[in-house]
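One thing: could you explain this record?
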Amino acid sequence: MRIGYACLPVGVLDTEIKSCRIKNAKEKRLKELIEHNLFALDKMIEYNIANRIELFRLCSDVIPYAASPVNSLKWWEIFEEPLKQLGQKVAENNLRLTIHPGPNAILNAKDKKVREAAIWELTSHTRFLDALDVDASHKLIVPLGGIFRNKKKAVSRFKEVYQDLDERLKKRLVIQNDVKCYNIEEVLELGQELGIPVVLDWFSHRLNPAVQENSAQEWINLLKVGWKTQDGIPLIIYGDQGRGKKSGYYADTIKLKNLLEFLEPLTKDRCDIMLESQDKNLSVIKCLNALNQNLSRQALEEEWRRYEYAVLEGSPVNYLEIRKLLRSSDGCPVMAFYSLIEEALFEAPTMGNAINVAQHIWGDFRNLATAQEKKYFLKLIERYEQDEIPLKTVKNDLWKLVIKYEQDYLKDSYYFAL
C-alpha cells in the first residue's frame, strides 16, 4: 500500500511551480518556466523518495498552458531527456503518479467546445506521462462530469465521448465518484460497462452516498475487478471534513485516529491511498510514522524539531506536554505525540503566543542581524500588535532572515508552512 498527497509539498524548498500571464506566454518565457518547473518536480520527487512517499499527484501546471494554443512548443521533444530522467527516477523508486485535470475538463458537457477543450487537456496530460515514459499504472483521474438537468443524457454523452478518445488516453483514464453528481454505485456501473477502472473517493462518498450500504472494503472488492494488471492496484482517495468548515471542505490535517481506523480493515486488500488535506505531505509522513512498527525515538524527535514552534504558537500547554512525553515515555509514543500536535494546530494562535514565538525565533539570529533589520522587525511586531498587519507579514520577514543567515534547522520548521 502506497500513501500519498496531492500536488505541492508543504515546507519543502525549491518546489514552487511557476506560470505567467497569458500575454507573457512567449516561447522564451515558456521554455524558462518549463525548465524551472521540471527542476522543482525533481526536488519533489527527491523529497518523496527520501521520506518513503511513493504515491504523488502531479500538479497539472508543470507545463504552463499545455492545453492552450498559446503554447505551441513541442516541449516533449525540447525537454525529452530531463523528462525521461524524471520518469526513470520514478520507476526505479517504485513511485506512482496521478494527475487530476482542472475543473473545466468536463467530458460530458453539453457544449461541444467545452468537451473538445476537456479532451485536449486530458491529451496534454497523457502526453506528459508518456514523455516521462512511465507505464499505464500512472493515471489520469476524472469525475464523470455534470448532470445538466438530465443525468441519463449526461451519462450517454460521456459514453459517446469516451468511445472516441485516443487509445493512449484511454489506457490512463480512470473515473471517480464526486460530492454532488455521481455516487460510487453509479460510477461503478458505468466503469464496468465501458471497461474503465474506478477510483473510490471516500470523502465524496460520505457526502454523496450510494443507495447500497457497503463498507469501504466491500466497495474496494467491487471496484478492483475493473483494475487489470497493467492498471496497477486500485486507488482510494481519503480526506476528513474540516472542523469549523463548510461541508465538503478538507481538513487542515488528517486526523490520525480516523485514518488508522479506516485503513485497518484494508490491510489485506492491496490498494493505494491518496490523502487530501491542507498540510499534504505532512499528513502522509504522520501516517507513515504511525504505521511504522520500527519507528525510532530519534525519528520522532526529528519530527518534533520541525513541529515545535508551530505547536508552541498554537498551544503552549501541548508544547510542554509533548516535551514531557518525549522525555519520560518508553518506546515510541506516536499516537499520543500526534494527537497533541493535532489539537495544538487546530487552535488559532493568540496574539501573545504569536509574538512570543516570533521573538523566540528572532533571538536565534539577533546577534547576526543588522541594526536596520532589528529596527524593522520590532516595527513589524508593533504593527502586528496594533492589528495593522497580519501575522503572515511578520513570518515572511523572519523567513527572509532565516535564508539570509543560513539557519538550516529553521528552514525545516513547519512554523513557516502551517
Notes: The beta strands are 3-6, 55-58, 96-99, 139-143, 173-176, 198-201, 235-239, 272-276. The chain has three domains: 3-291, 297-346, 351-416. The chain has a mean pLDDT of 95. The CA atoms of residues 167 and 334 lie 46 Å apart.
